[in-house]
Every structure is written in C-alpha cells, then in structure tokens.
Amino acid sequence: MAHETVVPREGRPIGHFSVNLPNKWCDCGNYQAKHMPCSHVIAACSNIKYDFWSFIPDVYKVETVLKVYDEAFPPIKNKGYWPKYEGVKVCHNPLMQKVKKGRPKSKHIKTKMDTTERVPRKYRLCWVSDHTRKHCPNAVDTFTQI
C-alpha cells in the first residue's frame, strides 16, 4: 500500500491517493475503470523501485501487436474473383431528416387484431340502422305535438 500526495497544477486540487498494487486498485478510480496504470500507480511503483510495465495488460504491449503481423496473409486473388462494384451505397441518417409540421404519423404496423368490423350506426330513438333523425318514419315530430 502506497500513498501519493499530488501537488496542485493547472487548477487541480491537492489530493492524497492510496494505491494498492496487489489488488490493482487506486483511489482516483482510473486504474479500475481503464485497466491501465494511472499516474499514481506509476509513482507508487517508482517509489518502491518496481517495474510498472508488469501492470500493463499484454494486449497493449508492442510485442503482442507485432505478433499479429507475424502470421502470413493469403495473397489477393485475380480481379476476376472480385465482386462487381455497384457504386457507393448511401445510407441516410433518419435523425438528420427535416421535422415535418403537424401531428406525427403513427409508426404502429396494423395487423388483423387491430382491424375491427364496423358495426352500422343505429338511430338512437328507434334503434334501426338505416334511420336518421331527419328521415325516421317512427320519429315523433316535436312541432306537431304542441
């Protein structure tokens, strides 16, 4: 366990950071978040004369990257085997589309469950579907009753 005191630079506050090298832990949180040694871990390693390179994952080391290129790549085939080029494919970004005025259209895709059969309307006084207020033979004229 090592402690490091940071001298304020460029508006940074003074801070004390605890570093636990065996557990790969630092108070700043960068070491845990990025899985790369932060400046506090490097300072703690130099304080105890320990090589900080052992805390860097192998994936980020130059030797590992160079091993990728050690493998032989297959040669590129004759142009006759290449797929035909049909020009540039343009995929539009729907977020860049101009917003239209008015009520937005529904994006719901209707299915058989959404459609219902229409029931013919019935006139509310005689409850016959073909009759209306104007053309109902059973309707009582309010003016003739007076």
Model description:
- The chain has 146 residues and is α+β, with helices and mostly antiparallel strands.
- It has a domain at 2-68.
- It is 17% helix and 9% strand.
- It has 4 helices and 3 strands, in the order E-E-E-H-H-H-H.
- It has helices at residues 30-34, 39-47, 62-68, 142-145, and strands at 2-6, 15-20, 25-26.
- The chain has a 3-stranded antiparallel sheet.
- It is elongated and about 110 Å long.
- The chain starts with a strand and ends with a helix.
Structural class: alpha+beta
Q: Cα-atom Rg, whole angstroms? A: 39 Å
Strand order of the largest sheet: 1-2-3
Q: Could you estimate the helical fraction of the residues in percent?
A: 10-25%
**Average residue pLDDT:** 81
Shape: elongated
How would a crystallographer describe the biggest sheet?
3 strands, antiparallel
The N- and C-terminal alpha carbons lie at a distance of 104 Å
Helical segment count? 4
- What fraction of residues sit in β-strands? 5-15%
Uncertain parts: none
Count of extended strands: 3
N-to-C series of helices and strands: EEEHHHH
